[in-house]
Amino acid sequence: MAVLSRCSRAVTAATTPNAAAAKFSYLIRALSPFSSSSSSTFDADNGLNSRIKPAVLGTLKREPKDRNVQWVFLGCPGVGKGTYASRLSDLLGIPHIATGDLVRDELTSSGPLSSQLKEIVNQGKLVSDEIIIDLLSKRLEAGEAKGESGFILDGFPRTVRQAEILEGVTDIDLVINLKLREEALLAKCLGRRICSECGGNYNVACIDIKAENGKPGMYMAPLPPPPQCASKLITRADDTEEVVKQRLRIYQAMTLPVEDFYRSRGKLLEFDLPGGVRESWPKLLHALNLEDEEDKQSAAA
Asked: Which pLDDT band holds residue 41 (cuts at 50, 70, 90)?
């Protein structure tokens, strides 16, 4: 089988691969690869999306049954990967797999990794390749049993080693790298709240950055909870200023090379978020050559 040769390449590429990595290799599948020739930066204000659109994005408008794309979302912690990946998941009808959610689910369980993960997360450190691959393997196995095809990965890969393992077993179609100004990112992380009952994600921060020194202003409205959740909001244990800054430092040191990894392969689309979801979502769709009819209808109403 073709997947067997991919697994062999993954084992060769990754340093001292373990059983979890090997299991992951067998579970992931290449479903709809397409070519790309260069990386691209999308300027949301000017609508520039050079080079990548003819080679990659022109193939995206397909019938729902063929929408089994394999995408990756990159970006600093708190940038909004989950928000936009989830919206695209609903639009394209493919699963959104967030490794951060997998880690949090394991944290709330009584599984063998729970106590180990709690210490790692509370210190703002990156979870090891072995743990992430083990959790992701279990999620892919469960999805395969349900007949899922295609995926949007959010939070994986975070290291070049993980990217090499992933490339060894499947063809990633596109890597979307979300970017946000650091001052907005910090405020956004500190404003995150979760409903302790339903698990909904909200944000109480109102970010209003004035234009200065040639930089444009930015406004991001709060994302308030519905009335039934307002009294049940909690803050994540790792959303303190010290831990958030530590996560950003680690990201710069360890995950930026992943951007270079995909940039050199012509699969990286860099998207600068111009503001909140209301401003950014239509422009992200434009960058991806996609349309959201429901969003259009609600905007026109």
From this structure: low
- A 10 A CB-CB count for 225 gives 20
> Cβ neighbours of residue 85 under 8 Å, at least 6 residues apart?
73, 96, 98, 152, 154
Quote the tokens at residue 136: 């992701």
Residues 6 or more apart whose CB falls under 8 angstroms from that of 166 comprise 10, 28, 72, 156, 157, 172
pTM score over 0.85: no
Mean pLDDT of the chain: 78
Catalytic residues: 81, 158, 192, 236, 247
Collapsing DSSP to helix, strand or coil, 195 comes out as strand
Cβ contact 271:178 at 8 Å: yes
DSSP H or E stretch at residue 218 = strand 218-220
Strands 192-195, 40-43: pairing kind:
unpaired
DSSP string for residues in 24-41: HHHH----------S-EE
What are the tens digits of pLDDT across the range 131-187? Answer: 888 888 888 888 888 888 889 999 899 889 999 988 887 789 999 999 998 889 999
